[in-house]
Amino acid sequence: MENETQENVKNKKWIEEPDGYLNKTPPLQFILVTILFALWAIAASLNDILITQFKAVFALSDFATAFVQSAFYGGYFVIAIPASIFIKKNSYKLGIIAGLGAFSLGCFLFFPASRLVTYQVFLFALFVEAIGLSFLETSANAYSSLLGPRKSATVRLNISQTMNAVGDIIGILLGKYLIFTDGNLKQEMASMSKEAAEQFGQQALARTLSPYKYVLIVLVIMIILFIITKFPSGKPKTSDSQKNATFKETMNYLSKRPRYWHGVAAQFIYMGVQTGVWSFTMRLALDMFPQFNERFVANFMLYSYICFFVGRFVASYLLSKFSETKVLMSYSFIGMLMILYITFVPNITAIYAAIGVSLVFGPCWPTIFARTLEVVDDKRHTETASAFIVMAIVGGAVLPIFQGLLSDFTTMQFSFIICAISMAIVFLYFVSEYKYDKRKA
């Protein structure tokens, strides 16, 4: 009987440890979860395309275009806690399937939105899409770290996060070749009669559907794969007296950990920086150089995402050699200086700096996420604690609004001062974390 039990254990693909981690990483399950990171990055990078397209078609101010990000990241903020409660009561797998379903619905809503030619309907579609992505991020960020031994949790999350850059690149390529044309949309519409411009604008909006058709196909395939694939629970085994921590108990637990909330605040500020820079890089190029067109300036975002990808790999190497707080202090300080350069240098090198600053963005999100979640010793609170960190993505909804508003009153270039100040705050967060590590050592 004992030999039979040992044989069963030997033949199992994985063994779930009491803390929710696995004895080894299951390749198929980890790959499927990692693909999710690329999918929500595709959606986020397409927003940068939509901002530029909507600016011309709907004749919007920079302040109004920022509501693309507000609708998108606002969905994350509203749904993250309900998503965590759903996951806690069910499973990470069901949370992911629910997220993929809502993501699909949001993509589908682009079709009626393009026919109604109404900015508000597009914003609603983005909000629904973001509801699905909130489920995915709340599930996948924590789940990726749990799919294997505890000691390599941060490594797995960084590997999965690398797919963000891949998704960003795919999204910008889809937008460049399927949405943008060789002409300058704003200038072309300005030279037309009102009726001709409206018809031309409708055609431009219809092109926004093209990338979402392909995304929908991938989402349907992913839903099927997650339904038919067996996944571990990722839930810690606890005694009856410890099971099912209530939301109130979790909040009481987290309220006694100020370092956790510092991490959430840092994530909020950092997401505002990243979203602000990426949202307005193409707008900055078009504003500084009116002879450029949308398809050409899309290259700047493509280069930005390549820099993001390279920066993350370089950071992974540096993090294996040096203290992560030292690496991130250096990255955030350099990022602050580069954004100040974007703000005050009135020539093409400012655009190059906007591209290059993505080199230092790579390790920020996963490092802040992992360090903040490490504060949570009691894993009964992991889902809710993870949800609050995901909710911090709402920084990408708030700060770009102020940047767009400042741009309308001054210039697009000067509006980047908000990103520079915010990056300085992120730098101070990593200084405090460095001091914490020194005290702990």
UniProtKB/TrEMBL annotation:
Keywords: Cell membrane, Membrane, Transmembrane, Transmembrane helix, Transport. One of its GO terms (cellular component) is plasma membrane. CDD domains: MFS_FucP_like. The keyword Cytoplasm does not apply. The chain crosses the membrane at residues 30-51, 63-87, 94-111, 117-136, 157-179, 214-233, 260-280, 300-320, 327-344, 350-373, 385-406, 412-431. It is a multi-pass membrane protein. InterPro entries: Lfuc_symporter_FucP (IPR005275), MFS (IPR011701), MFS_dom (IPR020846), MFS_trans_sf (IPR036259), MFS_TsgA-like (IPR050375). It is found in: Cell inner membrane. Residues 29-435 form the Major facilitator superfamily (MFS) profile domain. GO terms for molecular function: fucose:proton symporter activity. Gene3D superfamilies: MFS general substrate transporter like domains (1.20.1250.20). Signal peptide: none annotated. It holds the Pfam family MFS_1. NCBIfam families: fucP. PANTHER family: L-FUCOSE-PROTON SYMPORTER. This is L-fucose:H+ symporter permease. It comes from Companilactobacillus halodurans. The gene is fucP.
